[in-house]
UniProtKB/TrEMBL annotation:
Domain N-acetyltransferase: 9-167
PANTHER family on file: GNAT FAMILY, PUTATIVE (AFU_ORTHOLOGUE AFUA_3G00765)-RELATED-RELATED, N-ACETYLTRANSFERASE DOMAIN-CONTAINING PROTEIN
MF (Gene Ontology): acyltransferase activity, transferring groups other than amino-acyl groups
Record protein name field: GNAT family N-acetyltransferase
Source organism per UniProt: Microbacterium tenebrionis
SUPFAM superfamilies from the UniProt entry: Acyl-CoA N-acyltransferases (Nat)
Domain of life of the native organism: Bacteria
Alphabetical list of InterPro entries matching this protein: Acyl_CoA_acyltransferase (IPR016181), GNAT_dom (IPR000182), N-acetyltransferase (IPR051531)
One family name in Pfam for this protein: Acetyltransf_3
Lineage of source species: Bacteria, Bacillati, Actinomycetota, Actinomycetes, Micrococcales
PROSITE patterns, sorted: GNAT (PS51186)
Length: 171
């Protein structure tokens, strides 16, 4: 299962050969400013391995996003998450700092909405967002998501749950 390529981007599953790029991305304090801490190289390796387990168990996860000529941009995809104890599929994204602000996250996440429509609709797709992460909230809004709840299950922040009920494509 993979989203279709977009005007500028293509998706593929991540492998350990992506470790250099992903360790740079997930080790960047700016990119990780709404996470507890940037990831070390070994944590990035574990994260790739966890994503590979998700591909096998769930059929989806975060995928590498790259330009059509193979330039690494970041990751984007669909994972199982939960808010207030409710399991939901979430669209997630990380874009390398020097490529942000060009519409890449919105473009990639839109392809994930299309994939969700093909594979899982009708159903709820969410984005669970740190309350100060305005860029992520803007991406969710571009997808047509609206605030549906506050997640109070997290130990130290109340996260905003954005959601979109994705209808099946009319045939
Ligand atoms: C969230 C993120 C993926 C967006 O990537 P991107 O490719 O720059 O996103 P886009 O260019 O598609 O859109 C970004 C939107 O956020 C806005 N934005 C960017 N930085 C912003 C900021 N600091 N404050 C407010 N809005 C901001 C942009 O103006 C744009 O909105 P607009 O189209 O209405 O102008 C990127 O900022 C990132 O990787 N952040 C760190 C990782 C992260 O927090 N991921 C989400 C976890 S829930």
């Amino acid at each position: 299962m993979l989203p279709e390529r977009t005007e500028r981007l293509r998706f593929r599953e991540m492998t350990l050969t992506d470790l250099d790029h992903l360790a740079d991305l997930l080790g960047d304090p700016g990119v990780m400013s709404f996470y507890p801490a940037p990831k070390s190289r070994s944590e990035s390796r574990e994260w790739i391995e966890r994503m590979q387990e998700r591909y096998t168990s769930d059929g989806h996860g975060l995928w590498i996003i790259e330009t059509h000529d193979g330039e690494f941009i970041g990751d984007c995809g669909i994972t199982w998450q939960s808010y207030n104890g409710i399991a939901v599929r979430e669209v997630g994204y990380h874009v390398r700092a020097d490529r942000q602000g060009r519409g890449y996250a919105t473009e990639a996440a839109s392809a994930c909405v299309d994939l969700f429509r093909r594979e899982f609709a009708p159903g709820l797709l969410t984005a669970i967002i740190h309350p100060r992460n305005d860029a992520s909230r803007r991406v969710a809004e571009h997808l047509g998501m609206t605030r549906i709840a506050d997640d109070r299950a997290h130990p130290w922040i109340v996260r905003t749950v954005m959601g979109l009920t994705v209808e099946a494509q009319a045939s």
